[in-house]
Amino acid sequence: MTSTVTIVARGVSLLFAGLFAGFLLAVLVLETSLREFDASVYTQVRQVELDRLDALASATLLPALAATVILVVAERRGGTGRRLLAAALVLLVAVLVITLAVNLPINSDQLDWDVQVPPADWADVRDRWHIAHSSRTAAAALAFACLGLAALTRRPVAGRRIDSDSVTSNVTTTN
Protein backbone atom coordinates (compact mmCIF):
# COMPACT_ATOMS: atom_id res chain seq x y z
CA MET A 1 0.00 0.00 0.00
CA THR A 2 1.12 3.51 -0.60
CA SER A 3 2.56 5.53 2.20
CA THR A 4 -0.20 8.10 1.72
CA VAL A 5 -2.86 5.48 2.44
CA THR A 6 -0.93 4.36 5.50
CA ILE A 7 -0.49 7.93 6.74
CA VAL A 8 -4.21 8.65 6.33
CA ALA A 9 -5.16 5.32 7.95
CA ARG A 10 -2.87 6.06 10.89
CA GLY A 11 -4.46 9.48 11.38
CA VAL A 12 -8.00 8.12 11.02
CA SER A 13 -7.35 5.23 13.40
CA LEU A 14 -5.87 7.49 16.07
CA LEU A 15 -8.55 10.16 15.70
CA PHE A 16 -11.56 7.87 15.72
CA ALA A 17 -10.22 5.39 18.29
CA GLY A 18 -9.46 8.34 20.57
CA LEU A 19 -12.88 9.89 20.05
CA PHE A 20 -14.55 6.52 20.64
CA ALA A 21 -12.59 5.81 23.83
CA GLY A 22 -13.31 9.32 25.13
CA PHE A 23 -16.99 8.98 24.30
CA LEU A 24 -17.18 5.65 26.15
CA LEU A 25 -15.38 7.14 29.15
CA ALA A 26 -17.83 10.06 29.29
CA VAL A 27 -20.77 7.63 29.18
CA LEU A 28 -19.12 5.54 31.92
CA VAL A 29 -18.86 8.61 34.16
CA LEU A 30 -22.51 9.48 33.53
CA GLU A 31 -23.70 5.92 34.07
CA THR A 32 -21.69 5.60 37.29
CA SER A 33 -23.26 8.78 38.64
CA LEU A 34 -26.74 7.46 37.75
CA ARG A 35 -26.29 4.54 40.16
CA GLU A 36 -27.42 6.79 43.02
CA PHE A 37 -30.81 7.49 41.43
CA ASP A 38 -34.05 5.52 41.34
CA ALA A 39 -35.43 3.44 38.48
CA SER A 40 -37.49 6.24 36.93
CA VAL A 41 -34.60 8.70 36.74
CA TYR A 42 -32.27 6.00 35.42
CA THR A 43 -34.77 4.98 32.74
CA GLN A 44 -35.47 8.54 31.64
CA VAL A 45 -31.78 9.42 31.32
CA ARG A 46 -31.03 6.15 29.47
CA GLN A 47 -33.79 6.86 26.96
CA VAL A 48 -32.43 10.35 26.36
CA GLU A 49 -28.91 8.91 25.92
CA LEU A 50 -30.10 6.29 23.47
CA ASP A 51 -31.70 8.91 21.23
CA ARG A 52 -28.32 9.64 19.57
CA LEU A 53 -25.48 7.86 21.34
CA ASP A 54 -25.71 4.58 19.41
CA ALA A 55 -25.24 6.55 16.18
CA LEU A 56 -22.21 8.33 17.64
CA ALA A 57 -20.72 5.01 18.71
CA SER A 58 -21.07 3.64 15.18
CA ALA A 59 -19.70 6.82 13.62
CA THR A 60 -16.53 6.58 15.70
CA LEU A 61 -15.94 2.83 16.14
CA LEU A 62 -16.42 1.72 12.54
CA PRO A 63 -13.85 4.12 10.99
CA ALA A 64 -11.39 3.24 13.77
CA LEU A 65 -11.83 -0.46 13.01
CA ALA A 66 -11.52 -0.04 9.24
CA ALA A 67 -8.42 2.14 9.48
CA THR A 68 -6.80 -0.25 11.94
CA VAL A 69 -7.41 -3.19 9.58
CA ILE A 70 -5.69 -1.19 6.82
CA LEU A 71 -2.72 -0.51 9.11
CA VAL A 72 -2.35 -4.15 10.13
CA VAL A 73 -2.42 -5.25 6.48
CA ALA A 74 -0.04 -2.47 5.40
CA GLU A 75 2.51 -3.08 8.16
CA ARG A 76 4.89 -5.46 6.43
CA ARG A 77 7.70 -5.47 8.90
CA GLY A 78 7.25 -7.41 12.10
CA GLY A 79 8.26 -6.15 15.46
CA THR A 80 6.69 -4.02 18.11
CA GLY A 81 4.73 -1.76 15.76
CA ARG A 82 2.92 -4.63 14.07
CA ARG A 83 2.20 -6.33 17.40
CA LEU A 84 0.75 -3.11 18.80
CA LEU A 85 -1.44 -2.64 15.72
CA ALA A 86 -2.62 -6.25 15.93
CA ALA A 87 -3.38 -5.82 19.64
CA ALA A 88 -5.35 -2.64 18.89
CA LEU A 89 -7.35 -4.49 16.24
CA VAL A 90 -8.12 -7.40 18.58
CA LEU A 91 -9.23 -4.95 21.28
CA LEU A 92 -11.48 -3.01 18.89
CA VAL A 93 -13.04 -6.25 17.66
CA ALA A 94 -13.62 -7.22 21.31
CA VAL A 95 -15.38 -3.88 21.83
CA LEU A 96 -17.59 -4.59 18.83
CA VAL A 97 -18.43 -8.10 20.05
CA ILE A 98 -19.30 -6.89 23.58
CA THR A 99 -21.40 -4.10 22.10
CA LEU A 100 -23.33 -6.42 19.79
CA ALA A 101 -23.74 -9.24 22.31
CA VAL A 102 -24.61 -7.28 25.46
CA ASN A 103 -25.01 -3.53 25.17
CA LEU A 104 -27.13 -3.15 22.03
CA PRO A 105 -29.74 -5.75 23.04
CA ILE A 106 -30.10 -4.06 26.43
CA ASN A 107 -30.27 -0.63 24.77
CA SER A 108 -33.04 -1.90 22.52
CA ASP A 109 -35.02 -3.25 25.47
CA GLN A 110 -34.58 -0.05 27.48
CA LEU A 111 -36.13 2.03 24.72
CA ASP A 112 -39.43 0.27 25.46
CA TRP A 113 -39.29 0.70 29.23
CA ASP A 114 -42.00 2.82 30.84
CA VAL A 115 -40.33 5.68 32.70
CA GLN A 116 -43.05 5.66 35.35
CA VAL A 117 -42.92 1.88 35.87
CA PRO A 118 -39.56 0.39 34.85
CA PRO A 119 -39.28 -3.41 34.99
CA ALA A 120 -38.74 -5.02 38.38
CA ASP A 121 -35.27 -6.27 37.35
CA TRP A 122 -34.11 -2.85 36.12
CA ALA A 123 -31.13 -2.77 38.53
CA ASP A 124 -29.90 -6.19 37.36
CA VAL A 125 -30.16 -5.06 33.73
CA ARG A 126 -28.38 -1.81 34.58
CA ASP A 127 -25.58 -3.71 36.31
CA ARG A 128 -25.15 -6.15 33.41
CA TRP A 129 -24.98 -3.22 30.96
CA HIS A 130 -22.54 -1.37 33.23
CA ILE A 131 -20.14 -4.33 33.52
CA ALA A 132 -20.12 -4.80 29.74
CA HIS A 133 -19.70 -1.07 29.18
CA SER A 134 -16.80 -0.87 31.66
CA SER A 135 -15.12 -3.75 29.83
CA ARG A 136 -15.50 -2.18 26.42
CA THR A 137 -14.36 1.21 27.72
CA ALA A 138 -11.15 -0.36 29.06
CA ALA A 139 -10.63 -2.25 25.79
CA ALA A 140 -11.19 0.91 23.72
CA ALA A 141 -8.76 2.91 25.86
CA LEU A 142 -6.13 0.17 25.55
CA ALA A 143 -6.68 0.02 21.78
CA PHE A 144 -6.14 3.77 21.54
CA ALA A 145 -2.96 3.46 23.62
CA CYS A 146 -1.70 0.66 21.36
CA LEU A 147 -2.36 2.76 18.26
CA GLY A 148 -0.54 5.72 19.79
CA LEU A 149 2.43 3.60 20.78
CA ALA A 150 2.50 1.97 17.34
CA ALA A 151 2.68 5.43 15.76
CA LEU A 152 5.60 6.29 18.02
CA THR A 153 7.51 3.14 17.06
CA ARG A 154 7.43 3.98 13.33
CA ARG A 155 10.84 4.53 11.84
CA PRO A 156 11.37 6.63 8.72
CA VAL A 157 11.74 4.69 5.47
CA ALA A 158 15.40 3.92 4.69
CA GLY A 159 17.01 6.73 2.75
CA ARG A 160 14.40 9.30 3.77
CA ARG A 161 15.27 11.87 6.34
CA ILE A 162 12.49 13.56 8.25
CA ASP A 163 13.39 16.97 9.60
CA SER A 164 11.90 20.44 9.57
CA ASP A 165 13.71 21.42 6.34
CA SER A 166 12.33 18.48 4.36
CA VAL A 167 8.84 19.04 5.73
CA THR A 168 9.01 22.73 4.83
CA SER A 169 10.33 22.03 1.33
CA ASN A 170 7.61 19.43 0.74
CA VAL A 171 4.93 21.85 1.84
CA THR A 172 6.22 24.68 -0.36
CA THR A 173 6.65 22.49 -3.46
CA THR A 174 3.14 21.08 -3.23
CA ASN A 175 1.43 24.47 -2.93
From TrEMBL:
Membrane-crossing residue ranges in chain numbering: 12-30, 55-73, 85-106, 131-152
Keyword Membrane carried by entry: yes
Superkingdom classification of source: Bacteria
InterPro entries the record matches: Anthrone_oxy
Keyword tags: Membrane, Transmembrane, Transmembrane helix
Record-linked Pfam families: Anthrone_oxy
Protein name: DUF1772 domain-containing protein
Species whose genome carries this gene: Jiangella aurantiaca
